Amino acid sequence: SFYYGTFPAGFLWGVGSSAYQTEGAWDKDGKGPSIWDAFTHKKGKVFRNETGDSACDGYYKVKDDIQLLKELKVNHYLFSISWPRIMPTGIKTEQLNEKGIQFYNDTINSLLENNIIPIVSLYHWDLPQVLQEKYGGWQNISMINYFNDYANLCFEKFGDRVKHWITFSNPWAVAEKGYETGEHAPGLKLGGCGAYKAAHHIIKTHAKVWHSYNTTWRSEQQGMVGISLTTGWGEPVDAHSQPDREAAERYIQFHLGWFANPIYRGDYPEVMKNYIGRKSAQQGLGTSRLPTFSVQEKTYIKGTSDFLGIGHFTTRYVLQKSRPFLHASSYHSDHDLAELVDPKWPTPGPKWLYSVPWGFRRLLNFIKTQYGNPLVYVTENGVSEDVECTQLCDDWRIEYLKGYINEILKALNDGVNIQGYTAWSLLDKFEWNKGFSERFGLYYTDFKAKNKPRYPKASADYYKKIIRANGFPNPREVENWHQAAMDTCSATHQLLATDALITHMEKVTEIVLPTAFTLCILISVVLLILYLRNHS
Question: Is the Cβ–Cβ distance between 39 and 185 less than 8 Å?
Fold first, then answer.
């Protein structure tokens, strides 16, 4: 049932994005290449071979995009810093890029001038390509010190103004999609070991950066350092079945617990250690494919988060399913479960993203119980569409946001310590291996137009009203928001259609005029030759 009420005073409302997905300018002003530049430049890696080379041109449109944030009246903006933009090779002692540093200084200053709090992620997947080529990226323990140097540079340059730092955004995807399935950069398929090794180094890196901030910067800058973990919710198919309940628990532990458990409880979840250890033994391996932390490392890692960022999009039903013993091991065969969906769940966009709001409340309560009710910021939550035609009147996104945000309100009443919400995302942007085929934005980006203009969708107007009311005050008012948002998007649609026509005419003009001019010159030359021949 829908719950009408408002959020506590001081609750933070925001939107998010990431560097590679929006900035573009991949090789401009001294930026070094990232693993995503290298990955997308190989044919067959991304849908339609699209790249983020120019993305949303966000590098050149900071002021325009801050204007959109002002329109929404958000409290904060979550964005990431591109490591190779400020440190081209990823190695501090080799080279710093002052133009890159200036770009982020200008961005932060512009946000603060407009009373928008910057929440900054140090890593949203764009590792410097040099570190991948030289050392194998997150497979190599040397990343810990290289990343710590980079983080300390960011604290030094921006920490006087940035008070909310995220070390890693969705490290699960970095490990599993980058080093297990190869769907994401760097595109490695190191089945059964690669993801666990990458995650192990990322967790140690996170802890080192937290300690660096704690000892060197905290007393002076008074900020916070956390991590952003993305996970679905796993619900047992049969709540009365012990095997299904245990399978649902494994689903959460192999996604969220993999990273959260070491940080909040000092070690990997017992169920991960047991299952991966047993499967490794069945393969005849002397040690588990899941690395281990020493006693000192466990103590060092435990407690290294001032807040927990949570990304959440969807839910699955889960049941026990034993995988046959295979010599080819994988992360996905390690947890002995199958995922199902309810055909009645709405699927507004791609096949993986079902709208199941009640799963969010259960996830947030799980976090409260499992990790001692930490301070939580929702760092990513939203829905995409993958339709070819322009969709500004996105009532399915309105329903999604309304449902999921309402579950946060219920979770607050359950006693969960949530202090902020970030809608994902501000703009339609480059969606990794899906290219531009999926659109998460509250603002439509016209990628075909030269200056990539942004247009508000109905969901932008609706979200603005949630922010203004700080929740859902009463049924009548909330019902009016929907109609007002739909009216606004219809007008915007007409504007977009007009702009598209103008753009088309400009393109035609660009082609036709030079062609006509060239033809005129050719005809003139031919006539001149004929004239000269006749008079000779």
Answer: yes
Can you tell me whether residue 334 is helix, strand or coil? Answer: helix
**Is residue 324 classed exposed, middle or buried when 0-12, 13-18 and 19+ CB atoms within 10 A define those classes?**
exposed
CA atoms of 131 and 126, how far apart (whole Å): 11
Tell me the C-alpha distance between 267 and 113, whole Å.
Answer: 42
- Determine which one of 180, 249, 380, 438 is catalytic: 380
Q: How far apart are CA 254 and CA 268, in angstroms?
A: 9
The alpha carbon dihedral of 110, 114, 115, 121 has a sign of: negative
Q: How many CB atoms lie within 10 A of CB 322?
A: 10
Q: Peptide bond preceding 169: is omega within 30 degrees of 0, i.e. cis?
A: no
- Residue 66 · residue 116 · CB < 8 Å: yes
At the second CATH level, the architecture of 5-473 is Alpha-Beta Barrel (3.20)
Q: How far apart are CA 211 and CA 222, in angstroms?
A: 14
Residues of the chain with pLDDT under 50: none
Q: Which residues pair with 311 in a beta bridge?
A: 230, 380
What pLDDT shows up at residue 525? 83
* pLDDT of amino acid 351: 80
Q: Provide the pairing of β-strand 76-80 with 117-121.
A: parallel
Yes or no: say if 309 and 226 are a contact pair by the CB < 8 Å rule. Answer: yes
- For residue 298, give Cα distances in angstroms to 90, 259, 261, 263, 287: 28, 13, 11, 9, 19
Q: Does residue 506 have an active-site annotation?
A: no
In angstroms, rounded to a whole number, what is the distance separating the alpha carbons of residues 57 and 451?
Answer: 8
CB 234 within 8 A of CB 318: yes
Instruction: Identify the sign of the CA torsion 161, 430, 315, 326.
Output: negative
What pLDDT is stored for residue 328 in this prediction? 75
Question: If you ran DSSP here, which 8-state letter would residue 138 be given?
Answer: G
Q: Give pLDDT, residue 524.
A: 81
Would the pTM count as exceeding 0.90?
yes
Domains of the chain, by residue range, sit at: 5-473
